[in-house]
Amino acid sequence: MDPSRITLRPFKLSDADDMLVWAGDDRVTRSLRWKTLTSKDEALAFIEQACIPHPWRRSICIDDRSIGFVSVFPGSGDDRCRADLGYAIGVEYWGKGITTRAVKMATAQVFNDFPEIVRLQAFASVENKASQRVLERAGFVKEGLLRKYSYLKGSIQDLLVFSFLSTDHS
């Protein structure tokens, strides 16, 4: 895959059909707090209500078609020095280095867009080896295991925490 074809941009309502392809797939959404989308109307509502107003959610695109997302949730108050990163991509694009490239692009943009952030952190389920590899290949450092840390889809999960510091940024 030519890396120049991969871009990050804000979501548009016209992304609804493309979003439904990947966000309508349980294999993609099983690690997300989102429910799996089931219709174009749900995709439109999600883009309008959750993606567009989000402080930093970008569509991962190939040739300007949405194939996934990367989001950053900046902290506030005493937590303004850090932000949480999340991402997902359509199944047909798994294992091709696209997510790693998108995470690297997002990391560079976030430290530029939010100069007060010095720590970007991401969580991955202990079972999600692919997500762990994405973070490691994007330069994140695995810090440790958070036992019984969070509920996801009705089950309490052990999560690994990864970080990337602004001083790691080249």
From TrEMBL:
Pfam families registered for this protein in UniProt: Acetyltransf_3
Name of the featured protein: N-acetyltransferase p20
Organism from which the protein derives: Sesamum radiatum (Black benniseed)
Gene3D superfamilies from the UniProt entry: 3.40.630.30
GO molecular function, one term: acyltransferase activity, transferring groups other than amino-acyl groups
InterPro entries the record matches: Acyl_CoA_acyltransferase (IPR016181), GNAT_dom (IPR000182)
Domain (N-acetyltransferase): residue spans on this chain: 6-157
